[in-house]
Amino acid sequence: MSVNDPSSAGGVRSRLELQAIKHLLEGQWRRVRTYSELYGAGSALPARSAPPPAASSLPPSGQEVLDALPVAALLLTPVFGEDGTLQDALCPAQNVMARAYGAIRFTPGSVPPRGDTFSLFERFPDLARTAIPRLLTDAYRQGAPQGPEMVEWLASTRSGPVRVNDEARVAPCGDHLLLTWERSNRLRMADAAQQLVRTCWVEWNLGDDGFEASRGCRQVLGLGADTPVPRLFDLATAALPESLPALYQTLYDVILRKRTSECELRLRNTGERVLRMVAEPVRIAPGSLVWAVRAVLTDVTTDRRRREAARRAVHEAHREHERAETVAEIAGILREAVLPHFQDELAPYGLDAAAVYRPDAREAGVGGDWYKARKLPDGRLLIALGDARGHGLEATTLMAKLRYALAGLAYTERPVEQLTQWLNEVACADGSESTATAIIARYHPERALLRWTCAGHPRPVLVRDGRATQLPARPDGPGLSLGVLPGTVYSATATPLEVGDLVLMYSDGLTERRPTDPDEDTQRFLRAAEHCFREARPGAGHAGLQDYVERLVAHLDGPHRTDDATLLGLRRTGT
């Protein structure tokens, strides 16, 4: 991160904001200097009313000096071999802090009682394999303090080995050596914690423009190892223009209003890094002016990126939801327009009709399934059920085209095989993706005869006296699906119906279960049709038949379904 001159910060407004920050800091610098001159160290000291007490005539003992040290300490006598290498270190004295440390870290009995001399390496063998022997040797030979140096070793306890991690120093002390150590784990844990949460702290002095910073400060700010930590105004010049108003407000709150404040900073030459700065005032005395600004800086780049990604995802989900609602509304209108609601309009022709339609819930609420049953001018009935390729609005559009095309073609009074052939040509002309399956039938009331063709669709099921069977296929097999090959010829099958017979036409979405075999799916449908018949024989009229087909769909339907499901039921009631 480079420190930029205010004039290069970009834009008149940015230069003005930087100038305001500069004036704010300079004004506080003058106030701190004035305070220091008026209430300096000399003027603040009270006058002595009596001479200082005389020093004690008895100097402290060596043990008292050791116990006064704020760190754990051992007084050691080095023992060298004939070759000049350190062989051992005898400990004639230790201080209170060392005993307290040993009582916490080691097995009871490992720390000798006061006054006993013990061998350091005999008591703690693993110390001989650390940096301690080298520090002792260098301090003895050079006559100069050594360290601090990190020392890690294992101490045996009754509960198992304990890992000891300390910062050790060795200094000459007369004919002895003084080994002192401090637990470095707290400092290292603090550094690790700051690194884990990408946080650092800085305290900027407003009187001399000096500062103190944590060791992880450069890493959080995105600085190189040799780059100095920025002073307070340097931080402002390194911030992007959009960060300056918030930074000024934070400094104003801390310095003049004397309260904690926070802001977000985006710094130059650090990519997209975003820092959250929480600052508080440091006062010379309670209620007095602010001497320094203490701040915690946290790298929140990852958090901001996640929030931005979440915001975009929510926005996109909202758009998709709106789109889905629009598509569902259009599809619902199409469904109401193309899917009939039967009552008793076919009763005069000796038939009851009932239908159940279940769209794929993952799509727009309607799909490519369609059905039709209506009177034709010649006194016969057109009955059909189809399944257009795909899902959602596109499939709905295709099924509407085919359904209305069939309705128009049926008025030609041509046989169903001819109607199916013409409908295939319509699908082929619509494009390579416009494929569908269908059962197209005409019912002749005067003969109680159902003539039907199959274009790649599951064959109808006949339920007679409670027994369900699939209507037989033609010797030449079912015809091709609609829209696959122009010029395809279709053949019709004639099925006489007895009073009480049920004919069930359905789409494969009602029975298809991946990865089962289609024959297994058909057998499942037949068993379900018989079960629902035995459970409650269909009642009279449209309402009785509607109840039966709804129970049958409920028996077969479930969360495993991945397609639209449609069932059209016909029942011969008489002549």
Terminal residue distance: 94 Å
Q: Give the mean pLDDT.
A: 85
- Strand count: 21
Per DSSP, the total helix count is 15
The helix-and-strand class reads alpha+beta
Please give the largest β-sheet. 6 strands, antiparallel
Low-confidence stretches: 1-9, 41-45
- Strand residues, percent: 25-35%
Biggest sheet strand order reads 3-2-1-6-5-4
Structural commentary:
With 575 residues, the chain is of the alpha+beta class. Helix content is 36%, strand content 27%. The chain contains 15 helices and 21 strands. The strands form four sheets. Strands 3-2-1-6-5-4 form a six-stranded antiparallel β-sheet. A five-stranded antiparallel β-sheet has the order 8-7-11-10-9, sandwiched between helices. A hairpin with a 5-residue loop joins strand 7 and strand 8. Helix 11 runs parallel beside helix 12 and helix 12 packs antiparallel against helix 13.
Name the features:
about 575 residues; alpha+beta; 6-stranded antiparallel β-sheet; 5-stranded antiparallel β-sheet; 15 helices; disordered N terminus
SSE inventory with pairings:
Layout: H1 12-38, H2 41-44, H3 62-68, E1 72-80, E2 86-94, H4 96-105, E3 118-119, H5 120-123, H6 132-142, E4 146-157, E5 160-173, E6 176-183, H7 185-196, E7 199-205, E8 211-213, H8 217-221, H9 232-238, H10 244-255, E9 261-266, E10 274-283, E11 290-299, H11 301-338, E12 351-358, E13 369-375, E14 381-388, H12 392-410, H13 416-430, E15 436-444, E16 449-455, E17 461-464, E18 467-470, E19 493-496, E20 502-506, H14 518-535, H15 541-556, E21 565-572
Antiparallel strand pairs: 1-2, 1-6, 2-3, 4-5, 5-6, 7-8, 7-11, 9-10, 10-11, 12-21, 13-14, 14-15, 15-16, 16-19, 17-18, 17-20, 20-21
Helix pairs in contact: 1-10, 11-12, 12-13, 14-15
